[in-house]
Amino acid sequence: MTEITKALLPAAGxxxxxxxxxxxxxxxxxPIVDKPMIQYAVEEAAxxxxxxxxxxxxxxxxxxxxxFDTVYELEENLKQKGKKKLLxxxxxLSHLNFAYIRQGRPLGLGHAILRAQPFVKDExxxxxxxxxxxxxxxxxxxxxxxxxxxxxxxxxxxEEVPKEEVYRxxxxxxxxxxxxxxxxxxxxxxPSPEEAPSNLAIIGRYILxxxxxxxxxxxxxxxxxxxxLTDALKGLLKKRTIYGYVFKGKxxxxxxxxxxLQATVELALKSSPVADKFRKYLLEIADRIKKDSK
Length: 294
Ligand code: G1P
Prior knowledge:
The protein has helices at 37-46, 62-67, 72-80, 84-91, 109-115, 117-120, 140-151, 211-217, 229-237, 257-270, 272-292, and strands at residues 6-10, 31-32, 35-36, 52-57, 97-102, 125-128, 132-134, 155-160, 170-178, 181-189, 200-208, 243-246, 251-253. It is α/β, with parallel strands linked by helices. The strands form three sheets. Strands 5-4-1-6-11-8-12-10-9 form a nine-stranded mixed sheet, with helices on both faces. The chain has a two-stranded antiparallel ribbon with strand order 2-3. The chain has a two-stranded antiparallel sheet with strand order 7-13.
């Protein structure tokens, strides 16, 4: 069994939901508490032993490369000032390897993944969509890797969502094989609530096998005129079993303004330097809101 050492981080989107903040800087660099959104995904994968990251970027995304690079002047400055903790913090991910490829044209998630084929070659790999922030205390990706090793099949992360929200996701039909593990029988990208085969939505974590590239190569555009990864997985289903793993922990859809704010508040409550002060502040606000609404 080949170990999973590579992760793809698609990051070529225009981030239109966050305009004007994303006019000149990438959505993936928007900070949640004190880290850019994409760093949460990188840390999650690194905690599972993944050390090679392939970021699929586009124009106006250069700060992503700078962020994961060594900043010599900053290091020197922090050293001189004796700021050891900050120095450690900026170097914490320096053992990881990053490669950047450009998607070229915004033709969808499937197209973005296919661009990484020459670098992934014949290995299984993880895909993390950094919009979906998984609470750092949860074990989603490590559980998926564990199942992958057991089952030797591609695995997608699933979440039960309210029926009226299925149109935002890829949705599966499947048969439960054990608690929280489904053998997938069909997949539909962003169905209407009427079309949806279930309320089990694909969330942004996948363990894929390199045979997905063969399907992606032959694909046609799907929903929204884009090459959809969900459609490629449906194609792959004809050849092999694919599993879904239901995540029951905390996920924030930070690709959406409300989810972004939720992630900010929840993660700020956990991050120690400000957590206590912030909790007090939130309680004060809650009080104020209650009084105002009386
Ligand atoms: C993508 C996928 C979709 C999946 C979702 C998870 O959609 O196409 O199948 O459910 O990510 O976040 P996007 O959110 O990029 O539109």
